[in-house]
Amino acid sequence: MKTLTLFLSISALAITSSLAQNRGKQHKSSDAPFLTPKEAVAKMSIPEGFDVSIYTSEPHIGEPIAFTFDAKGRVWVVENYNYVNRRSHKNEQLSRIQIFEDTDSDGVFDTKKLFHDKITFASGIAIGHGGVYLGAPPNLVFIPDANRDDVPDAEPEVLLDGWGMQDRHETLNSFIWGPDGWLYGCQGVFTHSLIGKPGAPKDDRLYLDAGIWRFHPETRDFEIFARGLSNPWGFDFNDLGHGFATCCVIPHLFHIVQGGIYHKQSRPNLNPYTYAPIQTIRDHTHLSAHGGARFYLADTFPSEHRDHLFMCNIHEHAVLTDYMEPNGSTYIGRHGSDFLPTNDLAWVGFSLEIGPDGGVYILDWHDTDICGNAINFPKSGRIYRIMPKDAKRIARPNIPSLTDLELCQLQNHSNDWFVRQARTELHHRTISGKLDQKMVHKALDKFFASSKTSPKRLRALWAQHVTKRFADDAKQKLVQLLSHSDEHVRAWAIQLLSEDKNPPASIKPILEGLAQNDPSPTVRLYLAAAAPRLPLDHRFPILNALSQHAEDIDDPKLPRMIWFALEPLVTGHPKKALALAAQTKIPFLTESVARRMISGSPQNHKKPRPNLRAKWGQAIEAIAPGFKVENVGEGGVVALKSFRNEKAVQTHPLDKKTPCSLKRQLQVPKGKSSLLKIRCSYHPHGDWQLRVLANSKVLHDQIVSFKTVKSEWLEVEVDLTKFAGQKIDLALENRPNDWRNEFGFWHSVQVIHR
Description:
Blueprint: H1 2-22, H2 37-43, E1 50-57, E2 64-69, E3 75-79, E4 83-85, E5 88-89, E6 95-101, E7 111-119, E8 124-127, E9 131-136, E10 139-144, E11 157-161, E12 173-177, E13 183-187, E14 193-195, E15 206-208, E16 211-215, E17 222-229, E18 235-237, E19 243-246, E20 253-256, E21 261-264, E22 290-295, E23 309-313, E24 318-327, E25 330-341, E26 349-354, E27 360-364, E28 382-388, H3 404-409, H4 416-431, H5 437-450, H6 454-466, H7 475-480, H8 487-497, H9 507-517, H10 521-530, H11 536-546, H12 558-570, H13 574-583, H14 587-598, H15 610-623, E29 628-630, E30 638-643, E31 646-651, E32 660-667, E33 674-682, E34 688-694, E35 697-704, H16 706-709, E36 714-719, E37 727-735, E38 744-753
Parallel strand pairs: 17-21
Antiparallel strand pairs: 1-28, 2-3, 3-6, 4-5, 6-7, 8-9, 9-10, 10-11, 12-13, 13-16, 14-15, 16-17, 18-19, 19-20, 22-23, 23-24, 24-25, 26-27, 27-28, 29-32, 30-31, 31-38, 32-37, 33-36, 33-38, 34-35, 34-37
Helix pairs in contact: 4-6, 5-6, 6-8, 8-10, 9-11, 10-12, 12-14, 13-14
């Protein structure tokens, strides 16, 4: 017994030591022990008044990559048994979809069934419109189950192909039905996709290497909703229908606007004339990687949690929350709480959902390699439910069994899960021709008219939209909402009227009037977002009017969004663009038009334009005084406001044989000690060779990667005292290693004499 007690004490000490070494700092893997689900729950710091139950876990599931609820409150889990690492997978039909049901609402599944197991790699899932939408790169597929008997009616139909798999951790993911009826999803920056319908030629496809996309279940239109970000693995809409994404490596939180171009990790934006991509809204930092995003819009947690964004932080091994504070046309993302630290270094929270019971459901991939570079705990995975201790058990929902009128009534439910599921069902019945539209429209009109808050009005408006309340001749009713007293109704009327890119001609003077006189920055933001979707003769009057709002000069989004709409018009309509630039009250627009007018075609990176060289030199001077940059490769020199929560400058070797170099001549003084101090970092999925040379003699040589550095930043000190009294040629090389993401990230380079 004494031996056992000693063994347990040593084991506990080892676990505590491992946690202490890794908690609160960036890491990719650990030697954490495998905890059973019950042991994992026992270690969690569960907030007072809450319980955590194990909804399902191994051996019932393994490698869970995505999950979602269906309209009966059942959980559908995608298990990716094909995954090997970020660069490879098993090319066999190994992955599957299972359905789990909690019949008594106690937070633990009671029954399960297999839906489909002939899948070669999968990454995202959504249920609706008579089947399952599945991300199975290189395809987005639809598995029909029209009679809802949980048996596929036919083989999967490929809706879109061309999704890349260069990084299997960054392909299409995080599916969610938007309030407008579109299916939304994410894709990461190191996967390169050329997406289109099967058989479509290259010119009919859309390129995507990072951003938010959407697909319409009826028209089958596909669009890039917003470009940029890093590896977003969480996307949701708040009560006003505003989109938010959670990210990795770069700052973690972004307010996503249609047509926006955002801060992008490592790679340049697709449009070289973006000039000023939209930045993060967060005012605080978390450790790098986040998974999942859901606003708590239910009725079971205490009221202080409503409208808070729940997300998983993979490196902190915790469930965190942020809340949004309005800021002009956008928000500031404030830290809410470290809601639930799991205290388990193998906990990998990929995604989360809010259930029909108001619980927060968490998917845990569960592995000590938290960045997907290996699988150390094969065939494991868990889904947990977080609930208040005193929560009452609910009767299990069955949305498809409800009448059309009952679905309309659910738009007023206090748990947005019911609102969203009912809206999707209304949309499906509309597309299928099975909806009593006259009765539904009457009920929704009444709900809209009686609603006293913006979120309730918008619920009615979105349901009206997906049930075609404003189709054809009835579109004029939507036009009338442009003069509604509620700014959010006006804003959404703008978006819905521009959705098909064919608005009624009658809205031209109305939109121009709104651009001139609407006091709401939110409305002005929606106008800027809609402008590229409007006929050409609509655009300049709207953009001219928006450019006259001096109060928007410092708005985090509006000047940029106006520019994104204006930029494609500048070279084709130079007189109109110059007139706007001359008259605008927003200096950023004047500067941007001028830059665009004098820009030629993008130049080869091996021969940067003189003004670009100057810009690169300024960026290097800011972090490495006295140094000049030579032989810059992919992406050029990029000044980053935030990389791993620090300012940094990014470089890349010119080619496989030619390093990028920071060089200077240095007079090393006599009678003093001289020290070169370097603080640098590496790409999350790559490495590079750092060499320091003086007069061509190598003074320091090492690979810069997570494996070699074991932390976010490498600190290097090189003693130069032996060169006292000499003038030396000093070179710091960003050398290629295995030619995979060889980006060097420099925080500071200093020469100190004492």
